[in-house]
Fold these 3 entries.
Entry 1:
Amino acid sequence: MKFLDGMWMVKKGFDVRYAANVYQAKIEPKKLTLYCPYGWPIHEAGQTVDGGIMTIEITSPRPDIITTRLINYRRDRSHCPAFHLNTTDPDVAIDEDDQGWTFTSGRLTLKVDKGDFPSFKYFYDGKVITSTGFRAKGLVTDPQGQVFMSDQMDLAVGEKIYGLGERFTSFVKNGQSVDIWNADGGTDTDQAYKNIPFYLSNRNYGLFVDSPDEVSFEVGSERVTRVQFSVPGQEMTYSVIGGTDLKSVLNTYTDLTGKPPLVPDWSFGLWLSTSFTTDYDEKTVMEFVDGMAQRDIPLSVFHFDCRWMKELEWSNFVWDSDKFPDPEGMLAKLHDRGLKVCVWINPYIGQKSPLFDEGAAKGYFIKKTDGQVWQWDKWQAGMAIVDFTNPEATAWYQGKLRHLMDQGVDCFKTDFGERIPTEGVVFHDGSDPHIMHNYYSYLYNKAVYDLVAQVKGADQAILFARSATVGCQRFPVHWGGDCWSNYPSMAESLRAGLSFGMSGFGYWSHDIAGFEDKPTPDLYKRWTQFGLLSSHSRYHGSREYKVPWLYGDEAVDVAREFTKLKLKLVPYLKKMAMETHETGLPMMRAMVLEFQNDPTCEDIDTQYMLGDDILVAPIFSEDGSARFYVPDAGGDQSGKPWTNLLTHKSYDPGRWYEETYDYHTLPVLVRPGTDPLAV
């Protein structure tokens, strides 16, 4: 949210009151509270009347994390959803001297000056990593009278900001305005399905705003030397997380918000979808499955998208009997072929669905303030939305899915969950509707993931999810949403996946060859290479089937070659998944995450590391040209060449390369001293 008019003035209609100085302080066991008047510094009691005070509470939920809570008026927040955090009771040290106060947790220390408009400086191992300075902490009122709490972190020279969820904009977030608000906007806008109020800085710290509400970030986009962040309401809580490097910061952040679990081994194989609005029945499905087998393309999962149910009845969770007269028999056939089965679902219930009357009668849907079911016509005519704050509604929804699993379904694609109403609605548990908008994705995906874990066992639990908020890394896997079938969309999808990985999520996928439109055979083959060198791989589309033989004989060859390559890499991928589970590091890593000491890697978003040892540079052009950078492996392998896994050509580190590749090769380089195929 922008509220300034240049450096000194405020936009018309806005009012901003800044915390001026620390007039009083209170030290308690493991808590430092500062009382800061607004406006101008107060130095004697006569100045304390007729003015407000910002209360600043400083605590620590875990070692190396310092949490700051800014309070204008205290409010009862029992009606507000909250992220599930794994807090401990760390030892902290709080001291006061003539200069100010210090608060230390682990190796992270916050120092607060006693002067006017004091600075708040964060030190890790004695080195300054970030700070807030003059007129940073403020109470903002907009032209409509809405109140916001705001703060600003200083941006150092050369500092770069990453993360904030799966964002399709530039990988480095400097200069961007980012609103943390889940939206179904496709992949070529600044909207995002998965918004995470957490960013990483190349100065080895992270900042997490602990609010499911619409957090607004101005990353050097209003004050160019600051990251400004604000939250609606009378309070805001945020944490600074320190570390020795970006990896350790991510580890600590996911200690707090949740580690990604392990995923079943079979999930690393190829997933094939019916696509979205394509016409299909059991005969079509079996032709696809048998066609892959006949062409020697190993298949792991078959996915049924929307039209396994009757149109206008999404969702009813009942197989369309005209197309699938014997679903149990069909699913058994697929299992006999060694496949797992995934089906598409969402939390929306169209009025024509047989489940609508049942859910409405039992009060299982989000309601309007007058007690009627909230409905609209976007997506499905007269659709309602399941209210997962109602435990009975959650159990009812899970029961419908349990029946599908009894029939033979193994997992679910949890689509949608972003367009959740905020005005004129009430939730069963009284949650603030505005704050529920993003948080809904957590309740939705948790309900489905928990059911799969109950039925199949925790080691077999997996989703294919689109929406997310903080903590949804516990319910993998997520895919990138609706992208176009062209090279810019392929590149923006990769940027988003890398940002997502910098936001605490371990696994990520995307629609191979794009979702919208029909891809060219060229794009199909290039995206196949990229897709099968991602943590999870799925062919999917909107109005077009994505079986490879529709795109030519060479597309079949490419699909076969890269599917088999990925299967050879499964032991390596399992090893990397264990690292993801234990540390929170993504399987697909931005170059800066793996090679933070190489400045060249700070901006690269067209290549990535697949785990520790494999560098992948997808090809984004019809002429097959690739431009990629080879970093120095460091350690005892410093200066040694990397080797292409497919061509065995060597590449010296520390320089860029430009080469042209056919459809059977691309830059897939192995770190010196390693052999991912021998794990």
Entry 2:
Amino acid sequence: MSKSLFRKKSLDTILKDPHQETDHGHGGQGLKKVLTVKDLTSMGIAAVVGAGIFSTIGTAAFNGGPGISLLFIITAITCGFSALCYAEFASRVPIAGSAYTYAYVSFGELIAWIIGWALILEYAIGNIVVAISWSGYFNNLLEGFGVHLPAWLTTDPTTAKNAYAEVEAALRDGKVLDKSLLFAQEAWHSAPVIAGKHIFINVPAFVVVVLISILTFIGIKESKKTTNFLVIFKILVILFVIVVGFFFVNPGNWSPFLPNGFEGVLKGVSAVFYAYIGFDAISTTAEECKNPQRDLPRGMIYSLVICTVLYILITLVLTGMVPFTSLKVADPLAYVFELVGQDWISYIISISAVVATTSVLLVFQLGQPRIWMSMSRDGLLPQKFSKIHPKFQTPSFSTLMTGIIVAIPSLFMEIGLMTDLTSIGTLFAFVLVSGGVLTLPKVVNLKGEVQEGKFKLPYINGRFIIPILYAVFMFFMLDRVQAGLTNLTNEGLQEILFLLFVLLATTLTIATVVKQFNVIPILGVLFCAYLLIEIPALSWIYFFVWMGIGLIVYFAYGYWKSRLAK
């Protein structure tokens, strides 16, 4: 049983898969190979520079002050280690499926299924968050032009109910209702009532997902052109905001640089990392690249570097223009320019926010169907998911299903825990990809020579580096470790996760000393694992429930239908 759970796919088998599927009647032809390194870099930027830079960056800056720029650097380094590992995999396994396919090679079927299920959190559920954010930006933009949609058509039931509860509390306390509470009151009373319940649905979020799904269904070439246009537009706007914003910077606002210490900076982990999720979406398009072994690694690394520079500059502008304590708002970029009397720039930012989140939706809606397509090819999902449209050469059924799964919940779902859940799914994938490089099998040609990919992960012996870093970490965290072990039976989930991380770090440090592992994948595992344990415990509970559902699906269907089982 345990052997069959961890059955692995050989690299030879994986490289033949697209051709085998064509022969087995999955649509009669493969995917269009149209993407270049420029397109892949553009897709990476499209996925990264989105809702994070226009919304979650404000909350992160509020918690960490100007020092939040350090967190972007830390997160970029963390993603950088993972990106190099993704690049090694992409060069050796140039097939759609991203971390799911890579895990199948390195760890076996059960782990591959788990990571594939986790990636649904990153792509499908993550896109619900992006769609809801898009709706907010779009409504703000319409308001700026004097167009007012009915409030009950632009929000979800939970948000509307909570907002009205604040109205009632304010009225009970005899407070004067401000603009936002007046809006919430009017929205509640104007909403239609059916069976005693006030009806609220987010129509703009639903409509944009439907339109994006149609575009991704029609073809990769059309999606590529749209993505490139959107990325050029939003980068120009962001550069404009950075240049203009520096003229309004007061250097005094950067002091103190770490007002709430490094703990305050770490509070923004989830918000900041949410800004970075998605650069791995590039790897899902491997089969549509003209030269995947060369261009996939370049696209990942180029996009990561460009996005990091933009985020750091934006953070310094935001925290320099106004005190960091005023940045806990939904639209920090537009807000700071309103404070300095430049309302016209805030309108440009609103347009760019709509464009930016549209590009994120587009890339994520491309990624999810291709992961399902790979899982279906392996027999873990019904054959229908791997069907290729004969005319558009896209995974048609998977694309339709992704559209439905994202569009319908976006009508009524609250943004709430979705950001944290999406970050857990992504970091979980990064941990497995980084660790998987260590177990990636060698390919030997007929001459007995080891065949490498076009990108080779640089080897840096970790025998001394990792133990030194481990010792430094333990020096600073010793009190927390001792407290956790002393009160183990009374600790909450957050501290238990921390102790599990310490156990993981200890194990990997010993293994690195003994086997002289490469520093890059080891640091990729440890950095991502540490960011994982900083995410609130409540989100982990939901994540475990999600994983439980996934395992039920696997043992009810995938385990028995797997092609490797046959």
Entry 3:
Amino acid sequence: MKQSEFTTNPKVSASLCAMLGEANKNPGKPPVLHFRAVGGGNPGSQDPTVSLLVETQTGDQQLSDLSSGHCQRLSDQFVSLDLPMSKVEQLIQEPHVERIQTKRKHKLVMEQALEHANGISAGERDFFESGSGVYIGIVDSGFDLSHPAFYDRNGRLRVDFLLDQVGGKQEFDRDELEQKWTLGQGNFGPGFDSNGHGTHVAAIAGGTLFGTGGWEGVAPDARFLLVKTNMFDVDEGVKWIFEKAGRSPCVVNLSLGSHYGPHDGTNAEERLYNQLSGDNQIIVVAAGNEQEKDLHVGSWYFPEQSNDYVFDVLPGNDNTDPGVVVTGWYSERDQFDLFLGTPAGQFIPFPSQGDPGRKYSNNVVSIDVSRTYYQWSQLIQCRLELSFDRATVSIDDLYGWTLRTSSKQLTAGRFDAWFHNSDFARFRQHPHLEKYRTVGIPGTGSGTITVASFTSKTQWTGDQGFAEDALSLAGRLSRFSSLGPTRDGRWKPDIAAPGHMITSALADGSRLSKAIERTLVNQRAVTIEGTSMAAPFVSGVIALMLQKATASGKNLNPVEVKDLLAKSATKDWFTGREAWTPEFGRGKVNIPEVLSLI
């Protein structure tokens, strides 16, 4: 293999350092996986851009002058910036720039197998609140605004504003949306949901009653602020929602995430959300569906212990090259030797902390390895990236890679590694293969409400008839729901809600509409599962909480919301009586009980 080096910098994310090294070596030819896993644009140009989250006190005008046209202040400390690669070095040299991180690509937190679901029925409510006077913000794949779940009893759209990040970051108000969308017609207007995920999620949180099954969201009188996201600028979407909500109480739902970070709440996006949330501004995040995805290895080591973690890269599909990013983390007080083993048996050493990163390549695979200091957690980050050319790769090239770790000096003694997301690679069976510590980012942040999923029912009906999930048990944690705690031992998830077998709104013409075993086409409903479905359930509950608190002249901040959810949570045979568990958090959400405490 050919070998080269790239410079590392402790205030620059490892992915950006690798991109800089590639761009300097091959101008106009950024590595494919970088622009798939992290934010980037126009990769074929001579000066490609990269999407960055910058932690800085530098003036906005100075950053705007560097940018390629997009520069947005998200908080006093963070700026979202699109920057030509040729100007990244100049940004690094700015004395007031503390940290530069590439935008990570988020993944929708829906179970891809589409296994089973059940409806949320309006039925008889045991509470008065319906979300009136509260905004529900949804950042997701898009929205079918011809669906009746988004209209009030007078036939008016309940969406006050929509931001389409995919369509040039265009903003639409309600009048414009009503002109371009027609109730019940299934036409494709702004923010069209080709996936179906966002439509389903939004209707769980606050959809109007629809269908003969009586499906209704938790807060059907709330107003919507919607963002069709490009999966990179989720942070900008959250900021935009809170700005549009103004002084009105607002809860934002994020049924998406990634595993590209230390899983201890110090990721830049998580620290940003700590700043954006506050009184009557609450952010809810899905815990993730990675309990059984084999994406995490972690353990406490003893001196001179060595382990080989064998993993297989998944083939991908016709539209994407196979590849994966692995990030490993250990305390700065410890010393580890790390190696990447190829399927052919060659072992490539990771560089020492502070040394340049290394790049290896041939006509099949490109390999980046680096080791940098991560000051926000006093951790050492070891980063490995594999990018394959699907035109030349074979299965033998993808299977049988090894991450070798060997402890040399230990004080803290723990090592953890995650793939950047599931469905890119899998670790093979190993005693250190962990289902715990699989809650995704930004769900490990301290400022968000993180939601696990449990099974409410085990049956559903589609156009092909009755169906049942014989492997699930009502009341038990959903078998996909990610488990806590965080890497630093904090209690995440916070709460559990129904997310298994959920029937909600179907986006016409979406990918989900082709899952005929799950759809009720005439009723415009579809049944799917995931912590993506549990999170908006809790977002709807929080909308009810904000409505009641506001009516009483109170404000609720994230800490108070968590405390109320914890005090009111249901404890049963499945959750146990402990104050917190890695499966259910503080217990199962209980709407009447939590409202009675406000």
